[in-house]
């Protein structure tokens, strides 16, 4: 299949490579010349602009962009995709943005005659490279089925979450819970150790009890409890604190618009914000446990 | 073995019955005559007072009491256990109390020549009746091995958490995390549904993603997502909001004494307190999701 | 002076009337015909559109609009003020919006040759009617001096807060603190009364001690402590909970953009949001004390 | 009048000196020999123990002790005041403790035939030395009148707060509000400055608006806004963070016992706890603003 791909950053580039590996023809665009060159070298064709990409004979276009403003610009702008793409081309936005904006863009696409899906991912750059991402997809069931084989080249868990925007809803809801759980684990581990327990023994109790969660049994923030997690390598790699902050910002803003309280979600956002302000924004978000442990001079 | 058991309430009575079923001889005490009569009917011998119980030839004494004040009274009072028990009898306190008090009583016991374990449980009245409780045990390893076969008559998961008081530490740390996670799940589910998602679809996404936790995959608070949980029967049964409040009170007080911050733990305590003040203290703690959903008039 | 005025709602209408009373000639616009008619009856001239208003010979234009989207539309839209106004006309926006948007619009105005001030107000509809508003003004000092006599017809406290956008900064900072203080007073009063104190005695202690604040000594939320405040009339009138929510949304969003933590500010926003969700959004914000008091059935 | 005074620490010693200056005969006790010697040099008589002090012909006894455990020990212990004092002697406890304990001790005193007042102070060591403390007094009105002239030698604002324990209630309620307000001011000032405002201009706006409070207009935490406050001298002197933490611990514990939620009060406690854990417990509590400002390396 001939597929268009816009946005070749840390996530988009490996995703696009996996489409090439799966045998798809790929036309790509990114404002960064080196990013573009990388994909061309891997076998893709470069387009000169989003508009130029949209005017090729692609059957589907995937976008992976930093924020809602970019998504709106690329889809709705005067030289954007909708102004140039032919009817019927399937549009898939894998950016993580707020549900409201996702629905606004999807409605414009549908009005223009283009089916559209929001399909944000989880799994990070590791999952993008390995082709093991999870896609949370919002849109019509028929469009979802059409997209499934394409997405399956880039991920292994493809979930239909309901109508337009629901992929974004699922992602912000899950990640808000993740952000809260990680702080909960950090507080529980730091408290238990301060009261005299061994961290690994405590993690063992929690992981077989009602406190069990992914942040404890798979991604424990206390150094030495698990191997191969950021906590065992100085909190490098993983999912950065500032990325968690972005997702919590989307969650609390979506909650504000829905007039829905999220007291712990908002508290978690502020705690990561404090931690980031102290210079830790680039560390994996599990480093928040350092907020709860007396630091050595 | 001849065992003493003090405290025949909702938890203590079924625990004592399981000791009888396992073939132990049991001498019991409770200030409530009907509670005492129930166990006598089941085959136990009644003692007239804690002191009288302590002066029998029991090899071990188990206590299951409401709060630290009762534990201190029963163990340290003038007519209490330590003043009357012979050296060497194994003392096991299964009450949930603060680690500081547990260590104070254990130190007094050891000074008197009695090995002592703190062994709080999780699993609720259902687990107590079924003999499937989890015991989180603090104390010397040799004493733990001595207690293990006794505890195995009442529970199926017997965990040694380290020295004296660590059973209590494990319990308050786990339950604080549980209290936080449940509110996190409540906020995420209520937000997702308010933004247009189906509750079961959202729970399905979370349970296979990084938000996964016991409060979501085993005890989901949203009505209709899981069968056989309090949410599917009007939040009756289960683990009452006021019991969660008690445990969060122990956790924040232990944190205060350890000069350890627990920001989300304290926020969770206050939210359950608000919910209880509005008249919901007897509902299962997962009912906190109603705090986040517009109630019909 | 001939002045233009756009936005004749609950705040704008009485402000415009005070300009008429002060002897200014007024050309007004509002999309609501009855709102427009009311001002015409009072002596103003109606314009058919923002563009039409901008093309008159007004020396200054004041806008009083609900949110940033309206302000951007009215100033920056194709048929908006900047596209039609002549150079040099002084532009004053009294809407309460986020500082970032205020600075964006001001920069566009200056680029077009029009001095612009952001001048949000406090004092409510009562202050608007009485002409006793406080104006917090951001912009060039010279422009501020030019605006001062106009603003003095509508308010009695005209404060220069620094460069463009700083009027909005001052307002969101003050109102965030107000939102926090009111909840602080609510918690302190409810706690003291629950512990057995008389509300008026407690307020008396606080008002002469270090807890003293406007929310306690001028606007106490406990019924019966002060006369002539919303608490003494069932929380009607005053500054609605949903208006406080709007301002806290601006504050936390401005904080997010500045990467600045506001833990209590965000907690306050969520508490008012809960209170609003329970059906209390139209009550004065001091009614938040009901969140802390057991309600009768 | 012959008065007894127990507890000659940082607060008690200067208070006792002021009683001597006012012409009272003073018998004093403190477990610290140097503390005792200091007062003897100033003209007081030393007692060998609380019991010995109680057996003199004092007409009133004042205690100033660190915490509830000390108060209970001194009043209720076997060698304590109640076991040795003659009926009718007026007992005044100026310690800051929880209202529940204050009421328990007062009830025991009354049962023994001694009128008792709880009379915690505000004003710090500076107020103690200058004789300008505020006394918040709980107890019978007649006893309050009897105590007033004594207290007036040590303070200038003597407030009757109602029955036994209400002095403590007033103090914890006021100080909880103070702890919240200070963080509110810190957040508002740090946010405003981060968004481009001058700190003094912002403080000026707040101090004439609805955000006005003691923490802003009398004790502003931003360096350079006010002279002669801790913020202008590196946060030395003043009211230490760890003392604020103690009072917030009393407030949240009193709230827990009263089943009363205090969401911002608990959040404030946790924030000061974090700040203290980072090594700042000895700084004036207004230093909490550093929690909100990017620190230089």
Concise synopsis of the structure shown:
4 copies of one chain form a homotetramer. Helices cover 48% and strands 12% of the residues of chain A. Chain A has 297 residues and is of the alpha/beta class.
Approximate strand percentage of chain A: 5-15%
Q: Count of DSSP helices of chain A?
A: 12
User: Roughly how many Å apart are the termini of chain A?
Assistant: 58 Å
Helix fraction of chain A? 40-55%
What do we call the CATH topology of the largest domain in chain A? Rossmann fold
CATH architecture of the largest domain in chain A: 3-Layer(aba) Sandwich
Nearest-integer average pLDDT of chain A: 96
Determine the oligomeric state from the structure: homotetramer
Catalytic activity (chains A, B, C, D): 3-hydroxy-2-methylpropanoate + NAD(+) = 2-methyl-3-oxopropanoate + NADH + H(+)
GO molecular function (chains A, B, C, D): 3-hydroxyisobutyrate dehydrogenase activity; NAD binding; NADP binding
Pfam family, one (chains A, B, C, D): NAD_binding_2
Organism (chains A, B, C, D): Zestomonas carbonaria
């Amino acid at each position: 299949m001939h597929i268009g791909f816009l946005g070749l950053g840390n996530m988009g580039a490996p995703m696009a490579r996996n489409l090439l590996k799966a045998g798809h023809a790929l036309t790509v665009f990114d404002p960064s010349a080196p990013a573009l060159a990388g994909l061309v070298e891997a076998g893709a064709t470069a387009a000169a602009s989003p508009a130029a990409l949209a005017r090729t004979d692609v059957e589907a276009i995937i976008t992976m962009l930093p924020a809602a403003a970019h998504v709106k610009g690329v889809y709705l702008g005067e030289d954007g995709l909708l102004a140039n793409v032919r009817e019927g081309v399937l549009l898939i936005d894998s950016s993580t943005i707020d549900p409201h904006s996702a629905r606004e863009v999807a409605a414009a696409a549908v009005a223009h005659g283009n089916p559209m899906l929001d399909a944000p991912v989880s799994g990070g750059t590791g999952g993008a490279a390995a082709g093991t991402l999870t896609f949370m997809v919002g849109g019509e069931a028929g469009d979802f089925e059409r997209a499934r084989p394409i997405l399956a080249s880039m991920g292994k868990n493809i979930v239909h979450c309901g109508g337009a925007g629901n992929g974004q809803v699922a992602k912000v809801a899950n990640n808000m819970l993740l952000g809260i759980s990680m702080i909960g684990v950090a507080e529980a581990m730091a408290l238990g150790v301060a009261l005299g327990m061994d961290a690994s023994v405590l993690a063992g109790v929690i992981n077989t009890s009602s406190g069990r969660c992914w942040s404890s049994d798979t991604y424990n923030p206390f150094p030495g409890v698990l191997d191969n997690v950021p906590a065992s390598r100085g909190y490098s790699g993983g999912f950065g604190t500032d990325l968690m902050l972005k997702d919590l910002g989307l969650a609390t803003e979506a909650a504000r618009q829905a007039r829905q309280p999220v007291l712990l979600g908002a508290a978690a956002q502020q705690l990561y914000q404090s931690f980031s302000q102290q210079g830790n924004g680039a560390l994996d978000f599990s480093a928040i446990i350092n907020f709860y442990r007396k630091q050595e001079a």
